[in-house]
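User: I'm writing a tutorial on reading structure tokens. Could you give me a worked example: one chain, its sequence, then its tokens, then a sentence or two explaining what the tokens reveal?
Assistant: Sure. Here is the example chain.
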Amino acid sequence: MDTTMVTEILRSGVWVVIKIAAPMLVLSMAVGVLLAIFQAVTQIHEQTLSFIFKVTVVVLVLLVGGGWMMETLLDFSRSIFELIGS
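And here are its predicted structure tokens:
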């Protein structure tokens, strides 16, 4: 195994992590920004309000996209094990 192969494996691993984490992070960030604007307009400064909405969004994304996330991880794991075997 040379440095080019290791670099490619690390690059693909980082890309898998980005693909899996991006939907949850982007949607929770969007909900946080919208709730911050709502709280600024209405002058309601409750910390648990944004936390509950963010956790709810993350759980919904996991319920909807969990299968796809697992398939992506399994495909990456299979490719790593195939490289180990060869």
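What the tokens reveal: The mean pLDDT is 92. The CA atoms of residues 26 and 32 lie 10 Å apart.
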